[in-house]
Amino acid sequence: MRDDDHHPLGATPREGSTTFRVWAPHAEAVSVVGSFNDWAADAAPMARLADGTWQADVEGAKPGDQYRFLLQTPQGKLCRIDPRAHEVTNSVGNGVIRDPSHEWHSEAFELPPSNELVIYEMHIGTFHRASEDTPGTFADAIEKLDHLRRLGVNTIQIMPAMEFAGDVSWGYNPAHIFAIESAYGGADGFKDFVEAAHSIGFAVILDVVYNHFGPSDLDLWKFDGWSENNKGGIYFYNDWRSETPWGDTRPDYGRTEVRDFIKDNALFWLDEYHLDGLRFDMTLYIRNVRGDEDDRGDSLEEGWGLLRWINNEVRERFPGRLTIAEDLRNQASITAPDGAGFGVQWCSEFVHPVREVLLQHRDEYRQMGTLAHALEHHYNGDPYQRVIYTESHDEVANGKARIPHEIAGDDAHDWAAQKRSTLGAALLLTAPGIPMLFQGQEFLEGGWFRDTVPLDWDQAEGFHGITRLYRDMIRLRLNRGGVTGGLSGRGLAIHRIDEGQKLIAYHRWDQGGPGDDVVVVINAHHQPREAYRLGFPQAGRWKLRLNTDWQGYSDAFGNFTSHDVEAVEYEHDGLRFSAELAIGPYTALVFSQEP
Fold this sequence. Notes:
Layout (H helix, E strand, L loop, with lengths): L9 E5 L2 E7 L5 E6 L12 E2 L4 E7 L6 E8 L2 E5 L14 E2 L22 E4 L1 H4 L10 H5 L2 H7 L3 E4 L3 E3 L9 E7 L5 H14 L3 E6 L47 H17 L4 E4 L3 H4 L13 H17 L4 E4 L18 E3 L1 H12 L8 H9 L9 E3 L14 H6 L6 H16 L3 E5 L19 H5 L1 H14 L13 E8 L4 E7 L8 E6 L5 E8 L3 E8 L17 E8 L2 E9 L3 E6 L3
Helix pairs in contact: 5-7, 8-9, 8-11, 11-13
């Protein structure tokens, strides 16, 4: 059974009535109960169709009315929320009929090319709260968009906002995947957020969860009464394949109706909410049961096929939109056109090596070759098939914390914490790949991520210099000054890996030449380096565009004197030209030539 434009599943309002349709193949009878018929069990019986769906056109049912489906089954009466409800009163409440029309005021938005994206991961419930007693809302988040505009990011990735159990959650426990979390402001609030974001130049990507549902407040569980092995019924695997790290609730990717349910949901977000992309949570557990890739019996071929199908549909129906996989198993096939077909994937080969180096307390054990690996990694020959980051919701929780906290505990003012965390930011924003920041990273938010603790916006003022450092790096990354075009190019050549001095230097370029070529120098030692000779790709003056030790970024920084350099014909590092430079402790320098 597949939907069509005339009789889609769910509630479709029409002139003077609403058509309801639900898949419940094992039910003996189904009716619609709601505020439009005083919740009377026999007022709106549904007709059974040949494919196991039930349908009724109910006069007087209109947008804003609440409803449920009442199922007669061999297991007794079941009162269920519509699996395709586009709005619910709460996770255990009622479905709400929605008017699908919305007057969009922002002009058509186009996602920037992948090499020009800078992503900001946001959790609506904690990003900004108008009240300490309630989770943040989309309206609250809109109030802080100007902060992100000044910061310079251009893409906001929203952690899951599908209706989940309760009002406080990371979002990775979806109860109703077609409905927006009511505590965040619901469907209208999300559309207002998307429109506000688009109007000032932000793309919006939503994190979606298809590797499991729930596991709590889950009306899909034994939806029409039927199940096997005391498993979940028609929407879930009913054998060992149901097991996931988050509960016994893996959808049955081999069942046509469930495949349609998930595929339609992915397309729904792009169509109904004008989103610019989707980030798929932990695809490893869509393509495998227990994540054991060495065991062919653990593989879920139908899950792999579902991912390919969704990505093909997105490319055909929504060209220019981006799909992101969190797979974290370093598989090039995830982003290969003849593989799963995702546009990009989160890169574990960047975050883990870089954090290993930054969090190493003893300089002599810090390995520059590890940084080189993180910089050079790619998928299918394209570094922009990867999202790179040093902090994310996973990397700063579950026993791990923000980088400053890992270095110095609760003392965000600690010199080493500030220096090494911003050194990581410099690596992130000068490396090939799509950089992503986690909310609050730009003002040294400390501790670890908790869905009960909002960002401390006082720190945005207290560490405004650090925020400026991030802003300046993003400006260079996106070539806002017209002199660092290579930072959004694909070219990378690491010409110095100095394990003794703990220094690494690399050349970035797109087309090459003045205004394009960029040289980045990283000192990962607590001592400065003076009169340090380094190879450069061209002769002439190389202007210093960024010195992360500048005291304007933090009173704790040393303002170590680094200057423009003059590259002369003196072979070094395998390059024809070289220059002497000075670099401060735990510092990054960025050089380029005038165009």
